[in-house]
């Protein structure tokens, strides 16, 4: 095996060092709950009777007293959203596969699965980020029946998978396998979709043309095919070893997808504490796994949302991850994939070009992944392969030796870029991140007067009124977790993209999010401390000169420091109270959310400060 890259080794070691006490406390907690026999034997007779009452006859007899393990299913199924609709039939596939290996499978609970595509730019988006933590808690309720020997987690999209991971780690004595549904087949090419969106923003096509383009892009069951947070989730589950090898991007409704679901079930039954290959999730996922996730994110140009989710997931396992860890890993990880918004291709093209097996093998070959990190199937060193059907049976073969499309996927010896394109942004305005992998080099440094907006609607109104045809840095503040739940500001991308295409130098600075679809505009996002908590963005005024340097990672304010410090911060006055659509129910989440650089989570794990 290729020796580990020294920077990867150093980042891993410092995560372990700063997490020593919290990780030890975490491991003590989960090891204290390791079952000596089947989990349900801890329950009283009445408890077990309730747990078995809804089962079919064969499962009931086994739950009541015989020797089969029980697998709990946590599902995010709903039939409104394309990514989760395929899960409707998964429980039956799983139950049948479990019986074949003398195991019982039960749906332990469902979790909400909202779609940022539906809520983008709408009031409901203010619930999006905190839905991650609701999902974690809903999963915990399902698993709290404490009668399961392993768990299968069915989820795909933005906040769903991180929430499921948090729960899987808090129930870390259980083996857990993540079961994806796969992406929808390719629709309208992404560059054409972007072109229509920008034309609509300029008023050059009508709403019917926009709707037609959107419907041709998002057209069937399965995950959206661009490389946003949902598909970044699937990549991460694979390099963290929570998937079976090659499970991420097989389309739904295919024989191979069904075979992978059956195999995940039977693997879950094989890795319980009652067998010879016990793989509890909380011991399997360690600092190496988290570093592998960050490496995968950088190598593929993945979603900036994971600068929030990875620290939150890591904290659930007693691990402390910082933005410096992201920046250092990004510096040494080459960009091997170009998938929209980093290119024109979608995840189906990536998968066809060699996909996850090719990517993992390339990263292993240059020492950027911990190949010895454990996985639900062997170690990550075993994940440079792809699944296929051989005479109807599931099998694996080595990933292709060469990429099928060098415009989409490249070897580590010939990357698209020498680094992963994620920058830690730091300076007198705070700390945040910037994804520059999709930004042309000539657009990565912008120095211009600030125009301050307290809502994203105000920026769009200024654009529509023709007041933004100039060089400027848009400061969109009061968009952090404490202010309004940190909604995505992806709807600003077409507006700012139009202005950049007109020849103006534009950039964005915000304490909000831009999502996995962060594109061609230099944007310093997740800036903390946020304006609603008195952060420096609350004192920025129109005309202040700001320099956003996506190359060096500097976020500069060219204003006299004493004059700036003496300004009274702008008061957070939302343009509408957080009332309606259930937003008032999330007030406690807004009050207790941590800063963006520590995951924007209200949870406190094992005494870790937030």
From TrEMBL:
The residues that the entry says bind [4Fe-4S] cluster are: 157, 224
Q: Which GO terms describe its molecular function?
A: 4 iron, 4 sulfur cluster binding; metal ion binding; phosphogluconate dehydratase activity
GO CC list: cytosol
Q: Which residues form a coiled coil?
A: none
* Role summary: Catalyzes the dehydration of 6-phospho-D-gluconate to 2-dehydro-3-deoxy-6-phospho-D-gluconate.
Family assignment from sequence similarity: Belongs to the IlvD/Edd family.
Name this protein carries in UniProt: Phosphogluconate dehydratase
UniProt source species: Hyphomonas hirschiana VP5
